[in-house]
Amino acid sequence: MITEAFQKLLDTYLASKHRKKVEIITKAFNFAKQAHKGVRRRSGEPYIMHPLAVAQIVCQEIGLGSTSICSALLHDVVEDTDYTVEDISNIFGPKIAQIVDGLTKISGGIFGDRASSQVENFKKLLLTMSEDIRVILIKMADRLHNMRTLGSMLPNKQYKIAGETLYIYAPLANRLGLNKIKSELEDLSFKYEHPETYNEIVEKLQATHLERRSVFEDFITPIKKKLDEKGFKYRIEDRIKTPYSIWNKMQTKHVSFEEIYDILAVRIIFTPLDMEEELNECFDIYVSMCKIYKSHPDRLRDWISHPKANGYQALHTTLMSNHGEWIEVQIRSERMHDVAEHGFAAHWKYKDGGGSEDEGELDKWLHTIKEILDDPQPDAMDFLDTIKLNLFASEIFVFTPKGEIKTMPQNSTALDFAFTIHTFLGSHCIGAKVNHKLVPLSHILQSGDQVEIITSKSQHVTEAWLNFATTAKAKSKITAILRKEQRLAQKTGDDKVAEFLKNADFEVSTINVEKLTKYHNLTTKEELYMAVGNKKIVLGEADLDMLREKPQNSNAWKRYLTFPFASGKTKKESKEVEKKKYDAKDIDRKKPLELTEDSIQESYIIAGCCKPIPGDHVLGFIDDDNHIIIHKRQCPVASRLKSSYGNRILAAQWNTHKKLHFLVNLHLEGIDGVGVLNSITEIISRQMNVNIHRLSFETNDGIFEGNIQLYVHDVEDVTTICRNLKKIEQIKSVIRTEK
């Protein structure tokens, strides 16, 4: 098995365009095989199969050469065996040793036990990446293989690793142009987080395959005829949306699988007759197709003249087929296709012949990441969010007053642009002129805008700016300036509180400061100091009266608990229930938490952000107070927790037997008419025998929108109610919402 895998790696390498350094790859393989001798993975296979698989991905799917293949084979040697980086350097040279060292520094990190160490290691990953991009590319291959073999892990580990992959690695792969790897990482994460939904979508895709194939053949037949006449050298592929992207669209648009119409796309990949004419040939193919089919006027995307920041180039258009469906067509050359699939990082500085002009964008991006790292966020989640702002962004192109072009993320504002030019310009910005028209700081820029920033020395950064700053750089700079001002305000507040207590002959003690904090409904003394320092709170006689009274005995944390279900008795809704605390050591992580009627009422807290009910895919999270909170698996809050506090995630499953009632919200839209409301309440109350908690409807120009809060037992109840409501002729949409 090991010999076969190594032979496959060599065959793939020899078939590539790289210099044939087989000797050093064989040496690295033998060294790693010896170092990992006798060790097995959780799945039972010899450990060396993992480095071999990572090296195979690095060579075949990312297209890197011998240095990277050797580094991939050796990537776990320093961490898992007695060999050191110095040993690697002596045997394989300083370059391979540097990459292996970079991979060793970050390997424990993303799986670290403490959130802070996890984020520290993510910072290390980015820092190492800015030294040599190959470190992150090999780490991507390592993560991809871990995801492919995730089935042998326990469920809570699967959620943690899948959540972290979706939160950090997939967007990072996208930003580096590794489109194929990004798609597979997303799909594998989806498969482990929502196995039932994943299988459902895969089955539906298989069931509709022949129908799509027929549409594809009908659509491309006249195109092929036209392109053959013109003498183009090309191939046409059908591109099917991935299960993850289908599910994502179903979630964001609140539609069913059957209502997604852009599952099929067409890709035309051509070999230019002359490289000088590559761009012209793209547009020639586009013009040829527009003579056959009508194109959508708003959906032409020219990524050829303006490549994306990750190097992606293609011409996207949407054409109306003879079946009355819009079909997206992507036109790209073989070179563009290679960059789109493998990422242009693979063609970067260490390749023969030096760099290319495309590298500027990747350099800029790495420089931005370095800037963010120079001013690290104090809070782990803030740091990850800041980085993610950069990873996910699509680009627009805007011009300075002198005509220089700047690449900005989509939805960037005038304020973001100001911070992109210079921090001073951003922090003193009062407005901007876009295409010579005066606009506010919050104005969203469009591709092709020319922007001039207007400043004033008297302008100061305010917290409200964070609401319309969208780029990582602007947010991190604003936060840094605000933090500096907050520190000053806190210091002033601290002095004022101390002075106030001393003047009233009270001891300047933690107890008295805590009393003042609680009295003003604040949670920490820092918040109190800040409010006093900013003059939002002025301490006076009322505070002194409170301090003179006897202390009240109360459990402060109880105030923050909500009890989002009822068991028939309305009193129980408002009753505060003290939940059990847990010691993480006492929890059996091998078994999922059983969510029974008793355990929900006595032990677990149902998260207020996503309000899961029986039937939803859920997980448990141990919070700082050792309470277990139940979240939906796809809840945005849970996604952040999985990526930073993965060791506190627990698998969970429902076992409630329709005894408890849970409050859910339904949002309805439709055509207004006499008796609609009556029909709705008839179905819910009489036919379904369900209790309505709250009802609100409004109509506008013959269209109505309404929200209903009602008590149900589980997701099955919600599905039945939605299905029955949709039978009312005037109702066009019924969806469950969190609010």
Q: Topology of this structure?
A:
Layout: H1 2-14, H2 22-35, H3 49-60, H4 66-73, H5 77-80, H6 85-92, H7 94-107, H8 115-131, H9 134-148, H10 155-175, H11 179-193, H12 195-207, H13 209-230, E1 234-240, H14 243-253, E2 264-270, H15 278-290, E3 301-302, E4 315-320, E5 326-333, H16 334-342, H17 359-374, H18 380-392, E6 395-399, E7 405-409, H19 414-421, H20 423-427, E8 429-434, E9 437-439, E10 451-455, H21 465-468, H22 472-503, H23 510-519, H24 525-533, H25 541-548, E11 565-566, H26 570-574, E12 593-595, H27 597-602, E13 604-606, E14 618-622, E15 628-632, H28 636-644, E16 649-654, E17 661-671, H29 676-687, E18 692-700, E19 703-712, H30 715-726, E20 731-737
Parallel strand pairs: 2-5, 12-16, 13-15
Antiparallel strand pairs: 1-2, 3-4, 4-5, 6-7, 8-9, 8-10, 11-17, 14-15, 14-16, 17-19, 17-20, 18-19
Helix pairs in contact: 1-3, 2-4, 3-4, 3-9, 4-7, 6-7, 7-8, 7-9, 8-17, 8-18, 9-10, 9-11, 10-11, 10-18, 10-28, 11-12, 12-14, 18-22, 19-22, 22-24
Describe the structure.
- The chain has 739 residues and is of the alpha+beta class.
- The protein folds into six domains: 2-193, Hypothetical protein af1432, CATH 1.10.3210.10; 202-347, Beta Polymerase, domain 2; 360-479, Ubiquitin-like (UB roll) (Roll); 481-540, no CATH class; 558-654, no CATH class; 661-737, Alpha-Beta Plaits.
- 48% of the residues lie in helices and 16% in strands.
- It is built from 30 helices and 20 strands.
- The strands form five sheets. It has a five-stranded mixed β-sheet with strand order 1-2-5-4-3.
- It is globular, with a radius of gyration of 30 Å.
